[in-house]
Every structure is written in structure tokens, then in C-alpha cells.
Specification:
Length: 284
């Protein structure tokens, strides 16, 4: 199976400046395509910013899945013959979602709505998404999730079970999330035997300084690229989809063989989907 080249853009974002952010992303996209990237990934809420103080304020810059920003990037991806993932705020009637759009040369392929919502920024006012989805691009299969979703191993596992070769996690990691940025991509990549791309933003927005630390991890959980700093950066990596599709790893034939999917025991995992007892109510 052929390999392909992807890019991540660790960028600053200006809150509520959709036009300015969109132009900045377009400039980056032209650069990544010129450097051979077949798909480029931008951070969570890349077109809008994140630290909104109310639902009403966020709704001013929110768009439908096929709104002006989607149309702008559809035209650009068609002209550049490339794929793009970017974060935006989605409006659906009276509801607001923290979403990703996946766009290719033939238009919008799909949208993902964030499921795990922390008490932080615009997520305080956002509605919860419905399901995890994997999108087949022909040359590879990608699973989309956003920031805090990555803190729940079930998210990556659901996407991997649906056939994802690459788990994509656009983020807005602030201070306090350094350990998450350091280890989550590697752990999720290793435990699911997939590639994992995390793309964080940088800059300061309403008192929150975003920490960067974007990375691409291989299916064994090793760093392929790690932008271990809080400066803008464009980084590239090469993906071979045939590697994550081989879940059984034979390290020493007949002596050391690992099958992370075949060795699962779902019948033993009922506690994962049962209702949790609040910690304050637990008996010591």
C-alpha cells in the first residue's frame, strides 16, 4: 500500500476574527500543499477562537456545516486537490457545537461534533455530539475527535474499531495539559495500533496561553514528530496505512505475539458503560 504525507499546523488564532483566521489557514494550506502534503490538519476552533464568555457571543461567529467558511475551503481544496480538517463553531438551530469539518477535492466529506465537553471556554455552552465517525478517503481511513475526547480511551478505541488508520485530535490545550500533550497521543496510538496526530494551537486568548506541543505518533506509540514548544509551526509526517491495519504483531514467532484487538475481552468491560457512583458518595 502506498504511503502519504500529512501536515499539522500549530498556529495562533484570533478570537472572533473568522475572516482573518480563514486567510491565515489558506496561506498555510498553500504552503503545505507546495510541500507535498495530501492532507492538512488545523487546531480546534481554528476559524473562530475558543474563549467565548457566553452562548450569545459564540453564536455570532458560528456557522452551519456548509456555511461560508466551508464553502471557502471547498473551493480552495478543489483548486489545490487536497484534504483539510479544521475546527469551527457550528450552529444548528438554537444549538452550538464545537465541530470539525473534513473537506476534500470534491467538497465536504463529513463533520464531527465534540462529545466530551470540559467546563472551559466555549465548551461550557456547547451541545454534545452524537457519535464517533470514521471517514474513508480512499487512500486511508481517518477518525476524528477533539481535544478533551482524547482523555477518554474509549474515544480512540471506538474509532479504531470502526477501522481508522489515523486518529486526528485537533486541540486547544491550555496550561495544565502538558502531560496530556506529552503522553496521550503515544498511548492511544500504541493501544490501538494506529497513527495519532494531535494539532494544538498557540498564543494567548483572554488570559489563556495555549501550549502547542503538537505531535504525530506511529502505531507503536513512538514520536514521529514532536513540536515540543509553544511557537507557531508547520510539521509533516508520512503515513503507511498498511501498518495499522495489521493488528496482530508477531515479534518472535510462536513466542511473542500481540493482538490488541483479538485479545480484547468485551464481556469483562461492563463497568465502563455502567453509571458511575459520584466520588462523594462512595464508602471509604
Amino acid at each position: 500500500m502506498a504511503t502519504y504525507r500529512i501536515a499539522g499546523v500549530q498556529m495562533d488564532v484570533k478570537i472572533a476574527d473568522v475572516e482573518g483566521n480563514r486567510q491565515q489557514m489558506a496561506d498555510y494550506l498553500n504552503t503545505t500543499v507546495e510541500n507535498g502534503a495530501e492532507m492538512t490538519v488545523f487546531p480546534e476552533c481554528a476559524s473562530t477562537g475558543y474563549c467565548f464568555e457566553s452562548l450569545e457571543e459564540a453564536m455570532v461567529v458560528a456557522e452551519s456545516v456548509d456555511g461560508p467558511t466551508a464553502g471557502y475551503f471547498e473551493d480552495l481544496c478543489r483548486r489545490l486537490n487536497t484534504f483539510l480538517v479544521y475546527g469551527f463553531l457550528e450552529t444548528d438551530g438554537a444549538r452550538l457545537f464545537n465541530s470539525l469539518n473534513l473537506i476534500g477535492p470534491k467538497g465536504r466529506i463529513g463533520t464531527y461534533r465534540k462529545i466530551h465537553l470540559p467546563f472551559l471556554g466555549v465548551d461550557r455552552f456547547s451541545s454534545m455530539g452524537e457519535s464517533f465517525e470514521v471517514f474513508d478517503l480512499g487512500f486511508t481511513r481517518v477518525g476524528l475527535h477533539i481535544c478533551y475526547d482524547g482523555s477518554f480511551p474509549e474515544s480512540g478505541r471506538c474509532l479504531a474499531l470502526k477501522g481508522a488508520d489515523l486518529l486526528i485530535l485537533p486541540t486547544n490545550w491550555p496550561p495544565g495539559s502538558g502531560a496530556a500533550a506529552d503522553v496521550i497521543p503515544n498511548a492511544r496510538a500504541m493501544e490501538n495500533h494506529t497513527y495519532f496526530l494531535s494539532v494544538n494551537r498557540v498564543g494567548i486568548e483572554r488570559g489563556f496561553e495555549f501550549i502547542g506541543k503538537s505531535k504525530l505518533s506511529d502505531p507503536n506509540g513512538h514520536d514521529l514528530v514532536f513540536e515540543n514548544h509553544s511557537r507557531p509551526a508547520v510539521f509533516y509526517g508520512t503515513i503507511d496505512p498498511s501498518i495499522p491495519r495489521q493488528k496482530k504483531l508477531i515479534r518472535v514467532p510462536g513466542k511473542h505475539e500481540i493482538d490488541r484487538f483479538g485479545d480484547r475481552r468485551p464481556e469483562k468491560y461492563s463497568a465502563i458503560v455502567s453509571e458511575c457512583v459520584p466520588s462523594d458518595d462512595r464508602t471509604p
